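Morning F.,

Quick status update on the modeling queue. The single chain you submitted on Monday has been processed. Sequence for confirmation:
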Amino acid sequence: MKYKVLITGKNNSIIDDFFSQMSDDFEAVTTSNRYDDIIRHLTFYKPDVFVYCISGESRDNINQLNNARFRMMETRIPIVLVGAKEECDEVERIAVNLSSLTLYRPISIPTITARIAKLLEGWPRGGRQPGEPESVLGGILASKTYPYPRRRRLRVINPRRRR
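Structure tokens below.
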């Protein structure tokens, strides 16, 4: 089965590899880093996975991707980061728990293909399932099959507040 992949980022060598060497396993389409463009591609192309090829990304680009992440959570599209370890760590520092899978370069093309295919084999698909509440994000957060690691809540106590 060919998986649909939506790709963005500045690392053109990885993007070229998706089109030239991984075309047997993935049907790839690229998009820009703009939020509106990513959302339109998610709506009309309906990819199985979103791949972000990192190379010197600005904080604005990472924040736009972080905003688009919530749309991807609603439609259950995993995010894969591909890039140098330092750059991937910087993205994860800015946008905590952004990716479902992080692949550090240098990595071989067959390894990238195998790791993404393995991720997609067990991944839940297709947006809101029957019986889920209207608030898909609320349903995902409350369910046991939350696709991203949970964040811990911090309770802040105001010492000046009197009871």
